[in-house]
């Protein structure tokens, strides 16, 4: 019984994630820009991680100033990448950069309850 309950919880979490992602995409369509997580290749040895990532975004957006204004956060420990706010045309330009591996909409998920299988 616990196994099927765990599967149900996972299924509900996936559905909630999809609902939030869909809402984020709809909001992006209205104002034209949305936040994204951009996964990139690891920076080369001896190169500053933030400068490397800024260079990738600057190449896509056309200037370092635009890249600095668009970048929200840099990630370097668990993954190599950054979060950024992009319009649809900027998103397509970022996806075309050779160092970019994957781009995903940034979403925030919240727990609906603090209780899980009787544990709080």
From TrEMBL:
It comes from the Eukaryota. Keywords: Signal. Residues 55-111 form the Inhibitor I9 domain. Residues 1-21 form the signal peptide. InterPro entries: S8pro/Inhibitor_I9, S8pro/Inhibitor_I9_sf. It holds the Pfam family Inhibitor_I9. This is Inhibitor I9 domain-containing protein. It comes from Urochloa decumbens.
């Amino acid at each position: 019984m616990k196994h099927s309950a765990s599967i149900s919880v996972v299924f509900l979490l996936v559905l909630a994630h999809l609902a939030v992602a869909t809402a984020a995409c709809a909001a992006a369509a209205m104002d034209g820009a949305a936040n994204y997580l951009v996964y990139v290749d690891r920076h080369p040895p001896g190169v500053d991680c933030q400068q490397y990532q800024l260079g990738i975004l600057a190449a896509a957006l056309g200037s370092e100033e635009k890249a600095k204004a668009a970048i929200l956060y840099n990630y370097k420990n668990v993954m190599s990448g950054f979060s950024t706010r992009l319009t649809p045309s900027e998103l397509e330009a970022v996806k075309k950069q050779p160092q970019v591996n994957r781009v995903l909409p940034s979403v925030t998920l919240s727990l609906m309850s603090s209780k899980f299988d009787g544990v709080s």
